[in-house]
Fold this sequence. Notes:
Blueprint: E1 2-6, H1 13-19, H2 22-31, E2 38-42, E3 58-61, H3 75-87, E4 92-95, H4 97-105, E5 109-112, E6 118-126, E7 139-146, E8 148-152, E9 157-162, E10 170-173, E11 177-180, H5 188-197, H6 199-202, H7 204-213, H8 220-234
Parallel strand pairs: 1-2, 1-3, 3-4, 4-11
Antiparallel strand pairs: 5-8, 6-7, 6-9, 9-10, 10-11
Helix pairs in contact: 3-4
Amino acid sequence: xxxxxxxxxxxxxxxxxxxxxxxxxxxxxxxxxxxxxxxxxxxxxxxxxxxxxxxxxxxxxxxxxxxxxxxxxxxxxxxxxxxxxxxxxxxxxxxxxxxxxxxxxxxxxxxxxxxxxxxxxxxxxxxxxxxxxxxxxxxxxxxxxxxxxxxxxxxxxxxxxxxxxxxxxxxxxxxxxxxxxxxxxxxxxxxxxxxxxxxxxxxxxxxxxxxxxxxxxxxxxxxxxxxxxxxxxxxx
Length: 236
Protein backbone atom coordinates (compact mmCIF):
# COMPACT_ATOMS: atom_id res chain seq x y z
CA UNK A 1 0.00 0.00 0.00
CA UNK A 2 1.21 3.51 -0.83
CA UNK A 3 0.10 6.28 1.54
CA UNK A 4 0.25 9.97 0.65
CA UNK A 5 1.14 12.15 3.63
CA UNK A 6 -0.56 15.56 3.44
CA UNK A 7 2.00 17.57 5.43
CA UNK A 8 0.52 20.67 7.06
CA UNK A 9 3.35 21.81 9.32
CA UNK A 10 7.04 21.42 10.14
CA UNK A 11 8.58 20.05 13.32
CA UNK A 12 10.25 22.75 15.40
CA UNK A 13 13.78 23.30 14.10
CA UNK A 14 15.26 22.53 17.53
CA UNK A 15 13.70 19.04 17.47
CA UNK A 16 14.15 17.89 13.86
CA UNK A 17 17.59 16.29 14.29
CA UNK A 18 16.40 14.12 17.16
CA UNK A 19 12.85 13.30 16.09
CA UNK A 20 12.59 13.90 12.34
CA UNK A 21 9.67 15.45 10.47
CA UNK A 22 6.04 14.37 10.84
CA UNK A 23 5.95 12.11 7.75
CA UNK A 24 8.87 10.13 9.16
CA UNK A 25 7.09 9.78 12.52
CA UNK A 26 4.06 8.29 10.77
CA UNK A 27 6.20 6.03 8.60
CA UNK A 28 8.08 4.76 11.66
CA UNK A 29 4.81 4.07 13.49
CA UNK A 30 2.91 2.37 10.68
CA UNK A 31 5.86 0.29 9.47
CA UNK A 32 5.96 -1.40 12.88
CA UNK A 33 2.69 -3.00 11.70
CA UNK A 34 3.48 -3.38 7.98
CA UNK A 35 7.14 -2.89 6.93
CA UNK A 36 6.16 -3.04 3.24
CA UNK A 37 4.27 0.28 3.30
CA UNK A 38 5.36 3.00 0.90
CA UNK A 39 4.97 6.71 1.60
CA UNK A 40 5.06 9.90 -0.44
CA UNK A 41 4.86 13.37 1.10
CA UNK A 42 2.86 16.28 -0.32
CA UNK A 43 3.76 19.67 1.15
CA UNK A 44 0.19 20.95 1.03
CA UNK A 45 1.15 23.88 3.28
CA UNK A 46 3.21 25.02 0.28
CA UNK A 47 0.61 24.16 -2.35
CA UNK A 48 1.98 20.76 -3.41
CA UNK A 49 -0.67 18.19 -4.37
CA UNK A 50 -0.75 14.95 -6.36
CA UNK A 51 -1.37 15.33 -10.08
CA UNK A 52 -3.94 12.54 -9.75
CA UNK A 53 -5.60 11.50 -6.48
CA UNK A 54 -5.12 7.86 -7.46
CA UNK A 55 -1.33 8.03 -7.60
CA UNK A 56 -1.46 6.70 -4.01
CA UNK A 57 -3.84 4.22 -2.38
CA UNK A 58 -4.76 6.35 0.64
CA UNK A 59 -4.04 9.65 2.35
CA UNK A 60 -3.07 10.77 5.86
CA UNK A 61 -3.25 14.42 6.95
CA UNK A 62 -0.87 15.51 9.71
CA UNK A 63 -1.27 17.81 12.67
CA UNK A 64 -0.37 21.50 12.55
CA UNK A 65 0.05 24.51 14.79
CA UNK A 66 -2.37 26.34 12.48
CA UNK A 67 -6.09 26.61 13.14
CA UNK A 68 -8.42 25.32 10.44
CA UNK A 69 -10.45 28.55 10.72
CA UNK A 70 -7.41 30.77 10.02
CA UNK A 71 -7.32 32.62 6.72
CA UNK A 72 -3.99 31.21 5.60
CA UNK A 73 -3.76 30.91 1.81
CA UNK A 74 -3.17 27.14 1.79
CA UNK A 75 -6.12 26.13 4.01
CA UNK A 76 -9.03 26.74 1.61
CA UNK A 77 -7.38 24.71 -1.20
CA UNK A 78 -6.75 21.89 1.27
CA UNK A 79 -10.43 21.89 2.25
CA UNK A 80 -11.34 21.72 -1.43
CA UNK A 81 -9.00 18.75 -1.85
CA UNK A 82 -10.64 17.00 1.13
CA UNK A 83 -14.03 17.45 -0.50
CA UNK A 84 -12.60 15.92 -3.68
CA UNK A 85 -11.26 12.94 -1.71
CA UNK A 86 -14.61 12.51 0.02
CA UNK A 87 -16.54 12.62 -3.25
CA UNK A 88 -14.23 9.92 -4.67
CA UNK A 89 -14.48 7.91 -1.42
CA UNK A 90 -10.70 7.85 -1.25
CA UNK A 91 -9.42 6.23 1.98
CA UNK A 92 -8.26 9.06 4.24
CA UNK A 93 -6.93 9.44 7.78
CA UNK A 94 -6.80 12.74 9.66
CA UNK A 95 -4.73 13.42 12.77
CA UNK A 96 -5.29 16.42 15.11
CA UNK A 97 -5.39 19.37 12.66
CA UNK A 98 -6.24 16.83 9.95
CA UNK A 99 -9.12 15.54 12.08
CA UNK A 100 -10.40 19.09 12.57
CA UNK A 101 -9.94 20.26 8.98
CA UNK A 102 -11.72 17.26 7.49
CA UNK A 103 -14.69 17.92 9.78
CA UNK A 104 -14.75 21.62 8.87
CA UNK A 105 -14.39 20.94 5.14
CA UNK A 106 -17.31 18.48 5.15
CA UNK A 107 -19.86 20.61 6.98
CA UNK A 108 -18.78 20.46 10.62
CA UNK A 109 -17.10 23.10 12.75
CA UNK A 110 -13.86 23.45 14.72
CA UNK A 111 -13.11 26.09 17.34
CA UNK A 112 -10.97 26.76 20.40
CA UNK A 113 -12.28 24.75 23.33
CA UNK A 114 -13.46 26.51 26.48
CA UNK A 115 -11.66 23.70 28.32
CA UNK A 116 -8.31 25.10 27.17
CA UNK A 117 -5.22 23.12 26.28
CA UNK A 118 -4.92 19.37 26.44
CA UNK A 119 -1.36 18.06 26.68
CA UNK A 120 0.29 14.81 27.70
CA UNK A 121 -1.53 11.47 27.87
CA UNK A 122 -5.31 11.46 27.47
CA UNK A 123 -7.62 8.45 27.76
CA UNK A 124 -10.68 7.82 25.58
CA UNK A 125 -13.70 5.58 26.02
CA UNK A 126 -14.69 3.48 23.00
CA UNK A 127 -18.37 4.08 22.22
CA UNK A 128 -18.62 1.43 19.51
CA UNK A 129 -16.17 -1.11 18.10
CA UNK A 130 -16.30 -1.33 14.29
CA UNK A 131 -14.98 -4.38 12.45
CA UNK A 132 -11.68 -2.65 11.63
CA UNK A 133 -10.94 -2.38 15.35
CA UNK A 134 -8.96 -5.62 15.14
CA UNK A 135 -7.92 -5.46 18.80
CA UNK A 136 -11.04 -3.96 20.41
CA UNK A 137 -10.60 -2.12 23.69
CA UNK A 138 -12.99 -0.43 26.09
CA UNK A 139 -10.57 2.49 26.31
CA UNK A 140 -7.21 3.59 24.98
CA UNK A 141 -4.67 6.31 25.74
CA UNK A 142 -2.58 8.47 23.41
CA UNK A 143 -0.49 11.62 23.49
CA UNK A 144 -2.19 14.93 22.72
CA UNK A 145 -1.39 18.60 22.28
CA UNK A 146 -4.35 20.73 21.24
CA UNK A 147 -6.62 23.60 22.16
CA UNK A 148 -8.88 23.42 19.11
CA UNK A 149 -11.56 20.75 18.93
CA UNK A 150 -14.39 19.72 16.64
CA UNK A 151 -17.47 21.44 18.03
CA UNK A 152 -19.99 20.28 15.39
CA UNK A 153 -19.67 16.98 13.53
CA UNK A 154 -20.08 16.86 9.75
CA UNK A 155 -23.26 15.15 8.49
CA UNK A 156 -23.06 11.36 8.65
CA UNK A 157 -20.12 11.21 11.06
CA UNK A 158 -20.04 8.54 13.76
CA UNK A 159 -18.23 8.97 17.07
CA UNK A 160 -16.11 5.90 17.79
CA UNK A 161 -14.37 7.16 20.95
CA UNK A 162 -14.65 10.16 23.26
CA UNK A 163 -13.69 11.66 26.60
CA UNK A 164 -15.08 14.34 28.89
CA UNK A 165 -12.37 16.68 27.60
CA UNK A 166 -12.83 15.76 23.94
CA UNK A 167 -16.29 14.41 22.99
CA UNK A 168 -15.37 13.83 19.33
CA UNK A 169 -11.99 12.13 19.73
CA UNK A 170 -12.19 9.34 17.13
CA UNK A 171 -14.63 9.82 14.26
CA UNK A 172 -15.57 7.78 11.21
CA UNK A 173 -17.31 9.08 8.09
CA UNK A 174 -18.56 6.41 5.74
CA UNK A 175 -16.18 3.54 5.06
CA UNK A 176 -13.37 5.77 3.81
CA UNK A 177 -12.59 8.50 6.38
CA UNK A 178 -11.22 7.97 9.89
CA UNK A 179 -9.96 10.87 11.99
CA UNK A 180 -8.65 11.32 15.53
CA UNK A 181 -7.73 14.21 17.78
CA UNK A 182 -4.76 12.51 19.46
CA UNK A 183 -1.28 11.86 18.06
CA UNK A 184 -0.45 8.14 17.72
CA UNK A 185 2.78 9.12 15.94
CA UNK A 186 4.16 11.05 18.93
CA UNK A 187 6.63 9.45 21.32
CA UNK A 188 6.77 10.40 24.99
CA UNK A 189 10.21 11.93 24.54
CA UNK A 190 8.97 14.12 21.67
CA UNK A 191 5.92 15.16 23.71
CA UNK A 192 8.13 16.03 26.68
CA UNK A 193 10.46 18.13 24.51
CA UNK A 194 7.52 19.93 22.91
CA UNK A 195 5.99 20.75 26.29
CA UNK A 196 9.30 22.19 27.45
CA UNK A 197 9.59 24.39 24.36
CA UNK A 198 6.04 25.71 24.76
CA UNK A 199 6.07 26.16 28.52
CA UNK A 200 5.46 29.89 28.13
CA UNK A 201 2.17 29.09 26.37
CA UNK A 202 0.97 26.24 28.59
CA UNK A 203 2.14 27.50 31.99
CA UNK A 204 4.07 25.63 34.68
CA UNK A 205 1.06 23.93 36.25
CA UNK A 206 -0.29 22.40 33.05
CA UNK A 207 3.17 21.33 31.91
CA UNK A 208 3.74 19.69 35.29
CA UNK A 209 0.54 17.69 34.92
CA UNK A 210 1.39 16.85 31.33
CA UNK A 211 4.83 15.56 32.26
CA UNK A 212 3.38 13.53 35.13
CA UNK A 213 0.89 11.92 32.72
CA UNK A 214 3.77 10.50 30.69
CA UNK A 215 4.11 7.76 33.31
CA UNK A 216 0.86 6.28 31.97
CA UNK A 217 0.83 3.66 29.24
CA UNK A 218 -0.16 4.61 25.69
CA UNK A 219 -1.56 2.36 22.97
CA UNK A 220 0.07 3.79 19.83
CA UNK A 221 0.79 0.33 18.44
CA UNK A 222 -2.80 -0.81 18.79
CA UNK A 223 -4.10 2.40 17.19
CA UNK A 224 -1.62 1.99 14.32
CA UNK A 225 -3.13 -1.45 13.66
CA UNK A 226 -6.62 0.10 13.65
CA UNK A 227 -5.52 2.78 11.19
CA UNK A 228 -4.05 0.29 8.73
CA UNK A 229 -6.92 -2.18 9.07
CA UNK A 230 -9.34 0.67 8.32
CA UNK A 231 -7.36 1.67 5.22
CA UNK A 232 -6.95 -1.90 3.97
CA UNK A 233 -10.71 -2.48 4.22
CA UNK A 234 -11.47 0.69 2.26
CA UNK A 235 -8.75 0.57 -0.41
CA UNK A 236 -10.29 -0.61 -3.68
